[in-house]
Amino acid sequence: MRSSDVRRGGPDGPETAPTPALTTLRPRLPSPLQEVLDARFERHGVRLLLKRDDLIHPELIGNKWRKLAPNLAAAAGRTVVTFGGAYSNHLRATAAAGRLLGLSTVGVVRGHELADRPLNPSLARCAADGMRLLFVDRSTYRRKTEPEVLAAVLRAADAGGAYVVPEGGSNHLAARGCRALGAELAGRADVAAVACGTGGTLAGLAAGLPHGSRALGIPVLRGGCLGPDIEALQERAFGGISGSWSLDERFHFGGYARTTPALDSFAADFEQRHGLPVERFYVAKLLYGLVALADEGAFPRGTALAAVITGRPFP
Fold it and tell me: What is the tens place of the pLDDT at every residue in 208-248?
């Protein structure tokens, strides 16, 4: 997908600036950019750079900081309600932000049947951080953006007047927050690649890159329908399609939160080569896809390729 360069704050007004409360969390920005030597890229004349967004904050990791910070500022102290699956990194980051900032948080979890089971480690961490968990059936979860369904969920959560953050944290504020990621790579990368769940990070990344650079998204979900969502996010955030970006949907390995022995082996090998803990559901798929694309000749010789490391394995 190609576009003109629309570079403005968006139709809903200026970007929401971080509040003093957020800056007390001391994010590490800009995040480090680390070049690594890897023969799988070097033999094609490609330089591999790792954009270490996993080092922004120890608990609000990577794109979670970039997407959550403007939403937390907009929440202005209200209860934050958001959505995710049973292993959602977004829920964990939101719960951690609530604890650190003294905000009340509610996580609406996909899967009513999970309410009768012991909490998995991810949800247990959310609860330990003070997040109230509301389990809903999968049909309700699919319809969560419908006004009447959302209103019923908020009533069930006893969260009237709450600030609602969508699944994955991806809304127009999140896209604007991620635009700084592209700006940080200006003059450093010809191609910036990121794993995609809901598309908010790619929407902002592409908007922030300078003319002549492009963004590449590697979706981690099956379905092949992420493009229109990214376009809609950019329309809302920037008033139109912004930057040059594309998607390669071949590397989801069966869908969200799924891996294979081949992917696990690849991730373990990358860890050993470069001393980088590789998160399996997003980062491993991104890196695997980039190795495959390099072998296919997708990047011209001399390309500086930045892989955005959006997270790390949770303990």
Answer: 999 999 999 999 998 878 999 999 999 999 999 999 999 99
Residues of the chain with CATH 3.40.50.1100: 20-61+171-308, 79-161
> SS3 string of the chain?
CCCCCCCCCCCCCCCCCCCHHHHCCCCCCCCCEEEECCHHHHCCCCEEEEECHHHCCCCCCCHHHHHHHHHHHHHCCCCEEEEECCCCHHHHHHHHHHHHHCCCEEEEEECHHHHHCCCCHHHHHHHHCCCEEEEECHHHHHCCCCHHHHHHHHHHCCCCCCEECCHHHCCHHHHHHHHHHHHHCCCCCCEEEEEECCCHHHHHHHHHCCCCCEEEEEECCCCCCHHHHHHHHHHHHHCCCCCCEEECCCCCCCCCCCCCHHHHHHHHHHHHHHCCCCCCCCHHHHHHHHHHHHHCCCCCCCCEEEEECCCCCCC
What is the average pLDDT across 243-268? 95
Fold of the domain built from segment(s) 79-161:
Rossmann fold (3.40.50)
Integer-rounded Cα Rg, in Å, for the chain is: 19
The Cα 123–Cα 88 span in angstroms is 8
pTM (two decimals): 0.90
